[in-house]
Structures are given as structure tokens and as C-alpha cells.
Design a protein that fits this description.
The complex is a heterotrimer of chains A (368), B (316) and C (352). Chain A is an alpha/beta fold and 368 residues long. Chain A folds into 2 domains: 213 residues, P-loop containing nucleotide triphosphate hydrolases (Rossmann fold, 3-Layer(aba) Sandwich); 69 residues, no CATH class. Helices cover 32% and strands 20% of the residues of chain A. In chain A, strand 1 and strand 2 form a beta hairpin. With 316 residues, chain B is mainly alpha-helical. Chain B has a single domain, classed as MetI-like (MetI-like fold), CATH 1.10.3720.10. Chain B is built from 12 helices and no strands. The radius of gyration of chain B is 26 Å and the shape is elongated. Chain B starts with a helix and ends in a 5-residue tail after the last helix. In chain B, 43% of the residues are buried. Chain C is α/β, with parallel strands linked by helices. Chain C is 34% helix and 23% strand. Chain C has 13 helices and 12 strands. In chain C, a hairpin with a 2-residue loop joins strand 4 and strand 5. The N and C termini of chain C lie far apart (49 Å). The relative contact order of chain C is 0.14. The chains are: A alpha/beta (368), B mainly alpha (316), C alpha/beta (352). At the A-B interface, helix 3, strand 6, helix 4, helix 5 and helix 6 of A face helix 1, helix 2, helix 9 and helix 10 of B.
């Protein structure tokens, strides 16, 4: 936790190099974040003073994806699939058990000190719960101004109040609210304050962990629109984590579907929503409530049996096999890799995208 | 941030008109922090007002006893021994012929000093250990929790007797001064503060705003002092207020047992101890200091309750 | 907290079968909360009815009064600060608000059951699921322990909990969220109530499990011919199961319609705004329509139509006159049964 600058000379040099690399710009459409085989296992221990590990919850178990500059990558999945842990790992709020996260070529899971602080300036987060993500004892001005206290080089001291008011204005709040406390605002307004704080350092990437799921329906749309506007204006790349597939489709350019700590399928929004090849994605899509009884009647519904197994003791082979209607012996023994399925390889079809299923095939679930 | 105004204008069209009052904003247009809210809530509680007035009175007595009596508490005259309350001596005289009222007034100071100092020391020690354990977790917490539990294991009264027995005055008599009592009660009393603090810190540490500060690159000390501490200190203050009364009671107990403050120093405990030896000759030397003690302890406990309710209505 | 009260000794006979008209009829209900900051008018004249075998969805955002209405029906309103100031709640023609506490409890225990959002906190963590399910039968019907357990297993089977016989002695925390919600449903069903009130029953569940639970509810409802009041904020969930919908805003019903009608042609600007503001899975639009402003403060409900500060159609009359829930008709004046809208400009909204 403590970020003391090391005195070691050799490290100073490599740290300076890392900082330089981090500050270099990335072209639009180039990968800005590359996640490779990321793992996070939470040990299950017994005993109080002398702890003994008796197992591990494999919250994230080998996840890989790229985030391109300027795009929104949606990550969907049910509770317990590990999507929020991925967010924490990308933010270096948790230490990865294994795997790498390359930000502009630098593996941020290995960084510390000055270089990590430089990364943090550029990767920010918007939290799910607007009621716990703002310190109740600080004024809005202090909350949004805190990034400048931590990174004083971004804004000179005399300039900060004006900057904070600008940020309030940008997120659609009255700049005169600067001296108010969080409990004087509604949920939607608080989420705007959280967004303003995330924007303060002019970051390149914002990781949004369920940013609207705690808000009222009529306020969700306001916040989503705001986030889209800010993306254009500040040239941001988003990782948008949510369980609501409709919102993810609306905001995302590409979508990854997670199940029990692994990525089941990933592709452009059209590939995933209109041409899903993984049975889990198909089931998930078919289960989404559509606010239109007419369209609904035409839709095929796949109702999965059972619940998500415990990540402490996941099924062997393919993790989805216990709920899958296609499961065969192979699924219990061989872990399917996330790749373009063989049958679609070399074909120019939207079904040719990465899917971790032995028996991937296209199935249209949504009536188009 | 070049075109911020334009965006803001665009936003205003589709989103919150900033002037539309939200459910919470409309309640009051003025800025109020949580502490201010709690205070406003507090001053409307009769329990708080009563206890606050009592405590103010007690503190004034402790600070300026001569304002309340012109009689020297140590000017005793055996000819008055065990005289009952009268116009000249409201609470009567004790066995030694000392004025009970004057002694009760002058005894307040020692009792209050013990209460306040012990609580303050326990607050600092317990608070510090609780914060460190709760914030850093892992082996720090394991070690500090272990130490806390060891102290919890000490039987309070036995430990106090053992420690205080070692304080002697110049003549080699067993005699503990006020500070010795304070230190002893601190040694046996800080643990519950540490427990409360540790629990509060561990809970607050999980809050998203701490994660947000960390992801901004905040230093450990910033997270601790700016975010965790201000949000976890309330339960500690509540416990401290309630335990202040209990400490004053404990001091009286020790004096009563003859191992705390000893005569000629005056405290309520000393007075009660002396009076009970002559209980057959008259109740009044026992009644008045006991009454003051009860009122003081009660006042602090009531204050603690009121503070807790104001700061955390959910705990009620 | 359990859904069903355990005081009534014997289930009352279904004496109300002869009653004509709706199973539950709420008329002009007013509820207010007297707080230190002032009086919050949570429910301001709500009327709705449910028939046996029918599903009414009550749709609204936080603070719309949808849950408070249900609490008033169940008689579980926190008093104080909550008070029913006006209105009638007729269950089979009898006003529950005028019943004695004892009578009320009997109706509540045997005829109306409630399912809550958070199943974990509604079940007692230290008692096995089988014991809690069997309790109803032991207390209300005087069955033996063994019989009660058999009944509990039967109920668990009925709500499709796999391996019911093996899991009957498990504790609530050993079940997943979806399974716990099934146990809640089983509990609500145990005394075969006439009406079930489900308050956000699937909100805490994952989508794949949501579908299972909603299907189960619908199936059981048909089987027992129960009335169902489904309280939710999710326009998607209700589309599938509801027969009719009442949309609430600031403690009033602003629109009422059969389910298909409402989605096809909303007659209130609020409903229309809500429908437009949710992204659709099968179409990717550019920008979402967003209702401007914030939900109203119940301490200071705007004069006239409560929605007027956020409404794109608002005119002077909206700021002064409260629009009544008026019947909605076709353009040519033909009747649209079951439809109503509390908007001065419903004609323009639905036809314009």
C-alpha cells in the first residue's frame, strides 16, 4: 500500500523509463490495455493466528482481452462470475495471483512507486454504489479536488477551485454545490460527482463497475448519456462492467461474456448479440426481459436449470457444462480454449469470433 | 477541459436541471455536514440537555470548588462528629467532624480528573492499536489482537490491586496518588476501545471511497487520516463517553477497597469508604457522596447514549 | 420476518367464495409519513383491484409509493411514522382497515401472503428450511413433526427445489439466491392464500435465475387460481407475466392499462418516457431518451400534476390542476377497456 519512492538507482532508471512510456500517447484504435491470462485466487484459510490454506476461490481464472483506444468494451456476466474482481485487478486494488496487464507495454501488475502512481493518473474508476463511493465527511469540492491534492502537478493550487467547479459543470451539476456534502444529493447526482472525480486527472481509461445499476430507471438514461458524451469529448476508453445486457449493448463497441471466472465469448456487439455461438451467451440473451410483449412472443427462450456453481469448487473441463444442454463427455475432461471455433475459421461470417465452447454453433436468440 | 461550457449546456438540456431540488437537497438549501446534522439533532434531545447541564455543573465544581463552598474540607472538628445536616452544614458532618458538603465538593476534582484522564489515555492507546490493527490487517492485526486479548484476560480488579499495591509513599505506606490510579485504570481499561476502533476501521476500510482514494494513488497516511479515521471515530467517542462514568465509579471502588486514592486526599470513593465504616452511627456521610457519584456516572452514560443516537440513528 | 403470521389457529373457511367482484379492491388510499422534516405524502389516492387468477403489476421508481401501498394492504406499515389517512382496502368486499387487529391478522395469515426482495433476511438463519416451512403446518394445522416435514418436502418439490428430501434439513445460507427465493415462495404458498403480493421478487437475482423464478410464480398462480400483485421497477420483467399494469408516480397511479396496450401505446408522458429511456437489446440506438430532472421530493410534491417539472408536454394547467385518472378512449371515442391516464394531455400522448 505504501508508495515510498525507492532509493535504489537502477530501479530509478527503469521507473523513469516506465513513467515515460506511460505518458506517451496511444493512437486511436491501437490496443491501450492488454490483459493476458489474468488470475485471482482468494485463499480459503482456517485458523486464526497460524493460518492454513485449505483451498481457493478462483474468482478470476485466466482471462485475456484487449482494450483499444477510444472504444468501450463491455463485460457482462452474472454475480460471482468475477467481473468486479477483474475491475479491481485492473485498478491494482487487488494483487493478481498470476497473469499480466499491459498498459502501453508496461505490465502494471508489477509496477510500484512512481510508475504505479503515473498509471493511476491514467486509469480511473466509477463505482457501482453512489452511496458508499463518496466520503460522507468531505464536501463535494474536497471529493472532486482530492485527485489534485494527490497529483499536485496536474493543477496549481490557486487553480483548483475553478477546476472543480468546471468539473461539476461538465457532469451537469450546479457549480455552486461545491460546499455541499454527499448526503444532500440524490443517487443520480452522487454518481455524477463520482464521475467528476474520475475525470479530474484527465485519464485515458475509465473502468465502470455497474455504474447505473443502483439508479432509478429514469435516471439511468441520463447517466449513460453523460458517459457517452464524456467519452467523445475527452477521448476516453471505457471498460463497462454490468449485468444488464441491454445497457451493455447500448454503450459497448465490443462485449465479453464471463462465466465463473473465465471469458466465455468475446466479439463486437453485433457478433455477440446477433450471432452468439456460446450456449451460455445464448441462454443469457434469451433470458433478458424485453419490455415489449409483442417482440417477446416471437422470441425463443432458453431457460437454464440450476444455479451458478461455487467458484471455490468449479466443474472440471468446461465450467458451463453443468447447466449446458449440449454437454458431452468431452466437456468434462477438456477445458475449451477461447478462440475462433474451428468450423468458422477462415470464414467471413459474424459467427467467426472467439468463443470458448467445444460445440460452438450459431443460434439467433433475438428476433431481429 | 476546453469546451466544458458547451458540454454543460448540452447536458443541462437533457439531464438534471441543476436547480431541480432532489429529495435530499430540498430539505435545506444550506450546507450541512453530518456532524452538524448530528449536533442539531442532539440539542433537541431532552436527555442530552439534562446530561449536558449536569456535566457542565460537575466540571465547574471540579474546576472551581471554592465557588461552591467557603468551608475548608480538611478543617475538621471532632466536636461536630456525626452531626446531621443543618443550616450551617447542609450535608452534616462525618465521623471526623469534617463538613460532608465541602468534602463532596472538593472530592469532585479527583474523581473527575481520574475519569477524564483515564478515558483520554484509553482513547489514545486503544484507538491507536485499533486503527493499526484494523487498517493494516494480516500479521499486524493478529499480533495486536493477541495483545489486546491478553489484557482482556487480566481480571480487572485483581490486576488493579496488584499494580496499585506497588505504589508507596515516602513513609513506605501503601498510597497511590491520582496519577497512579489513572495509569492503572488505563492499563486495565483500554482494550474495549481498541476492539471498537478495530471493528469500525475494518468496516470503513471496505468502503468504496477508500478504494477510490487508493485508485487515485493516495498515500497510506492520507487514506488513514482523511478517509478511514474521520468515519470510524464516532463509535469510539460514544464508547468513551459512556465509559467515562464507569471509570469514575471504578475509582470510587478502588478507594473504597483502600488501594486507590487515600486520605488525606479527598475523593468520593475515599468518603464512601470512610463512611461505611461508621454506617451504624449515621447514613448521611455515605448518602451524599454516593448520590453525587451516581448522578455523575448517570450523566455521562446518558450523554453517551444521546451522542450515539444522534450520530448513528440505526443503532438505536 | 416470515411472510405468514402464525397466530391464527385454524385456517378460516373460504367463506368469501360467494363474494361478487374483485378479490382485492383498494379505493382512494392515502398514506403519509410524519417525519421530523415534515409530512411525506407517500400515497395520494391510489385505487386498484385484482381478481382471482389475475396479475396486476405495480410499476414505479423508488419513492413512487408502490411498496408503501403493499405494506398498507398487508398491515405491516411502520406506525409511526406511517399513517393511513384515508381510503378503503376491500378484501372480498370487507374493509381490512376497519377490521379488528385479530380479524386482520387472520386474513393476512391465511388469505394474503407476501414475498420480499431479500430472501436471506426474510428467513431465520438459525432454523433449518424444513423446520421453517413445516412451522406453518404445525402451528396452524396441528400436524405432527413428521407430517409437517413431509409437507415441507412436498412444498419444496412444488417450487422445484432439486433433491428436496435431501435438502430439507439445510439452513438458509446453504441455498443460492434463486433457491432461497423459491423457499420464500413455498412459504407464501403453504397455506394456499388467495392473493400473493410480491415486492421486487427477482430484483436481487441474476437474469437466468430471474426467468426461472418468474415462470414458477406464473405457473403456481395459474394452478392455485391466485391473485398476484407484482411490485417492480423493471419494465422488462412485468411485460411477460402481468395481465394489467398500474404505473405509479409520486404516490398516484398515473396510468393503468392491459399489459400489451401499455407497451404499444402509452397514454402518459411518464410511461412513454420510461419506455423510451431503456435501451433495447434488439436495437442499438444513438442516444437514449432521458427523462430530465429528478424524482419528486415527497415532502414537497409539485402542485398540479406531480410530473409537470419533468414533463415535455407541461403547460400552465399542469402546474395548477391535478389531473384525474380519466378513461382513455380511441380517437373515434370507442372504449378502451381497462385503460386510464392521469394526464391533461392523454389524447395528444396516445394519439398524437
Amino acid at each position: 500500500m505504501a508508495e515510498l519512492s525507492k532509493n535504489d538507482k537502477a530501479e530509478d532508471v527503469s521507473e523513469a523509463e516506465a513513467v515515460a512510456a506511460i505518458e506517451a500517447p496511444v493512437e486511436r484504435g491501437e490496443p491501450i490495455l492488454q490483459v493476458r491470462n489474468l488470475q485471482k485466487h482468494f485463499p480459503l484459510t482456517q485458523g486464526i493466528l497460524f493460518k492454513k490454506q485449505v483451498g481457493a476461490v478462483k474468482a478470476v481464472d485466466g482471462v485475456s482481452f484487449d482494450l483499444f483506444q477510444g472504444e468501450t468494451l463491455g463485460i457482462v456476466g452474472e454475480s460471482g462470475c468475477g467481473k468486479s474482481t477483474v475491475a479491481k485487478l485492473l485498478m491494482s486494488l487487488e494483487k493478481a495471483t498470476a497473469g499480466e496487464v499491459f498498459y502501453k507495454g508496461q505490465d502494471i501488475t508489477k509496477l510500484s512507486g512512481r510508475a504505479l502512481k503515473a498509471v493511476r493518473r491514467n486509469i480511473q474508476m466509477v463505482f457501482q454504489d453512489p452511496y458508499t463511493s463518496l466520503n460522507p465527511r468531505m464536501t463535494v469540492g474536497d471529493i472532486i479536488g482530492e485527485p489534485f491534492d494527490i497529483h499536485p502537478e496536474v493543477a496549481p493550487k490557486g487553480d483548483r477551485r475553478r477546476k472543480v467547479q468546471e468539473l461539476l459543470d461538465v457532469v451537469g451539476l450546479n457549480p455552486e454545490y461545491i460546499n455541499r456534502y454527499p448526503h444532500q444529493f440524490s443517487g443520480g447526482q452522487r454518481q455524477r460527482i463520482g464521475i467528476a472525480r474520475g475525470l479530474a486527472l484527465n485519464p485515458e481509461i475509465i473502468i465502470c463497475d455497474e455504474p447505473v445499476s443502483a439508479l432509478d430507471v429514469s435516471v439511468q438514461a441520463q447517466v449513460i448519456n453523460l458517459m457517452e458524451k464524456l467519452q467523445d469529448e475527452f477521448n476516453l476508453s471505457y471498460i463497462f462492467i454490468a449485468h444488464d445486457l441491454s445497457i451493455v449493448r447500448h454503450i459497448s463497441d465490443r462485449v465479453g461474456v464471463m462465466y465463473l471466472g473465465k471469458m466465455a465469448e468475446i466479439g463486437t456487439d453485433e457478433q455477440i448479440y446477433d450471432h452468439p455461438t456460446h450456449p451460455y451467451t445464448q441462454a443469457l440473451l434469451s433470458a433478458v426481459p424485453v419490455p415489449d410483449p409483442e417482440a417477446r412472443a416471437h422470441r425463443e427462450r432458453i431457460i437454464l436449470t440450476g444455479d451458478v456453481p461455487s467458484p471455490a469448487n468449479p466443474p472440471s473441463g468446461c465450467r458451463f457444462r453443468t447447466r449446458c444442454w449440449k454437454a458431452q463427455d468431452k466437456c468434462a475432461t477438456e477445458v475449451p480454449v477461447l478462440a475462433i471455433p474451428e468450423r468458422f475459421q477462415g470464414q467471413d461470417t459474424p459467427a467467426a469470433h472467439e468463443s470458448a465452447c467445444h460445440f460452438a454453433e450459431e443460434r439467433t436468440v433475438l428476433s431481429v | 477541459m476546453s469546451d466544458t461550457t458547451q458540454i454543460a449546456e448540452a447536458n443541462a438540456k437533457i439531464m438534471d436541471g441543476p436547480n431541480v431540488p432532489g429529495p435530499e437537497t430540498a430539505r435545506s438549501e444550506k450546507t450541512r455536514s453530518l456532524a452538524q446534522d448530528a449536533f442539531r439533532d442532539l440539542v433537541r434531545r431532552p436527555m442530552f440537555l439534562v446530561s449536558a447541564v449536569l456535566i457542565l455543573g460537575i466540571l465547574t465544581i471540579a474546576a472551581f470548588p471554592s465557588l461552591f463552598t467557603s468551608v475548608d474540607p480538611l478543617a475538621c472538628d471532632l466536636k461536630h462528629s456525626m452531626e446531621g445536616p443543618s443550616g450551617s452544614a447542609w450535608f452534616g458532618y462525618n465521623f471526623q467532624g469534617c463538613d460532608v458538603y465541602s468534602q463532596t465538593i472538593y472530592g469532585t476534582r479527583n474523581s473527575v480528573i481520574v475519569g477524564v484522564l483515564t478515558t483520554a489515555f484509553s482513547l489514545v492507546i486503544g484507538g491507536l492499536i485499533g486503527v493499526l490493527g484494523g487498517f493494516f490487517g494480516k500479521w499486524t492485526d493478529a499480533l495486536l489482537s493477541f495483545v489486546t486479548n491478553v489484557f482482556f484476560g487480566l481480571p480487572l480488579l485483581l490486576a488493579a490491586i496488584v499494580i496499585l499495591n506497588n505504589f508507596r509513599d515516602e513513609k513506605g505506606m501503601r498510597n497511590a496518588g491520582v496519577m497512579a490510579v489513572v495509569l492503572t485504570l488505563t492499563v486495565v481499561g483500554w482494550m474495549s476501545m481498541a476492539r471498537v476502533m478495530r471493528g469500525a476501521v475494518m468496516q470503513v476500510k471496505q468502503a468504496d471511497y477508500v478504494a477510490a482514494a487508493r485508485s487515485l494513488g493516495a498515500s497510506t497516511s492520507r487514506m488513514m487520516f482523511r478517509h478511514v479515521l474521520p468515519n470510524s471515530v464516532t463509535p469510539l467517542i460514544v464508547v468513551a463517553t459512556i465509559s467515562l462514568g464507569a471509570v469514575i465509579g471504578a475509582e470510587a471502588t478502588l478507594s473504597f477497597l483502600g488501594i486507590g486514592i487515600r486520605p488525606p486526599a479527598i475523593s468520593w470513593g475515599v468518603m464512601i469508604s470512610e463512611a461505611q465504616q461508621r454506617i451504624s452511627s449515621g447514613l448521611h456521610p455515605l448518602l451524599f457522596p454516593s448520590g453525587m457519584l451516581t448522578i455523575t456516572v448517570l450523566a455521562f452514560i446518558m450523554l453517551g447514549d444521546a451522542v450515539r443516537d444522534a450520530f448513528d440513528p440505526k443503532l438505536r | 420476518m416470515t411472510t405468514i403470521d402464525k397466530t391464527a389457529a385454524v385456517p378460516a373457511p373460504r367463506d368469501g367464495e360467494t363474494h361478487e367482484g374483485p378479490l382485492l379492491d383498494v379505493r382512494d388510499l392515502h398514506v403519509e409519513f410524519r417525519t421530523r422534516e415534515g409530512v411525506a405524502k407517500a400515497v395520494n389516492g391510489v385505487s386498484y383491484s385484482v381478481n382471482a387468477g389475475e396479475t396486476l403489476a405495480v410499476l414505479g421508481e423508488s419513492g413512487s409509493g408502490k411498496s408503501v401501498t403493499a405494506q398498507a394492504i398487508m398491515g405491516i406499515l411502520d406506525t409511526p411514522p406511517g399513517f393511513v389517512t384515508k381510503g378503503e382496502i376491500l378484501f372480498r368486499g370487507q374493509d381490512m382497515l376497519k377490521m379488528s387487529e385479530d380479524e386482520h391478522r387472520k386474513v393476512r395469515g391465511n388469505k394474503i401472503a407476501m414475498i420480499f426482495q431479500d430472501a436471506l433476511s426474510s428467513l431465520n438463519p438459525v432454523l433449518s428450511v424444513g423446520y421453517q416451512l413445516g412451522e406453518m403446518f404445525r402451528v396452524h394445522q396441528g400436524l405432527s413433526k413428521k407430517e409437517a416435514k413431509a409437507k415441507a418436502i412436498d412444498l419444496m418439490d412444488r417450487v422445484k427445489i432439486p433433491a428436496a428430501a435431501a435438502r430439507v434439513n439445510d439452513y438458509p445460507h446453504q441455498f443460492s439466491g434463486g433457491m432461497r427465493q423459491r423457499i420464500m415462495i413455498a412459504m407464501a404458498l403453504s397455506l394456499e392464500p388467495d392473493l400473493i403480493i410480491a415486492d421486487e421478487p427477482t430484483t436481487a437475482l441474476d437474469v437466468t435465475v430471474q426467468a426461472q423464478v418468474m415462470d414458477l410464480l406464473a405457473e403456481l398462480q395459474a394452478e392455485y387460481n391466485m391473485g398476484l400483485i407484482l411490485i417492480t421497477h423493471d419494465l422488462g420483467v412485468v411485460a411477460d407475466v402481468a395481465d394489467k399494469i398500474a404505473v405509479m408516480y409520486a404516490g398516484r397511479i398515473v396510468e393503468q392499462a392491459p399489459v400489451h396496450e401499455l407497451y404499444k401505446r402509452p397514454a402518459h408522458p411518464y410511461t412513454k418516457g420510461l419506455l423510451d429511456s431503456i435501451p433495447r437489446l434488439d436495437q442499438k440506438g444513438q442516444e437514449l431518451y432521458a427523462i430530465k430532472g429528478l424524482p419528486p421530493n415527497l415532502l414537497k410534491i409539485p402542485s398540479g400534476c406531480a410530473f409537470n417539472p419533468r414533463c415535455p408536454r407541461a403547460e400552465d394547467i399542469c402546474r395548477t390542476d391535478v389531473p384525474p385518472l380519466a378513461p382513455v378512449t380511441e380517437q373515434d371515442g370507442a372504449d378502451l377497456p381497462g385503460r386510464g391516464s392521469a394526464c391533461h394531455f392523454w389524447k395528444e400522448t396516445i394519439h398524437g
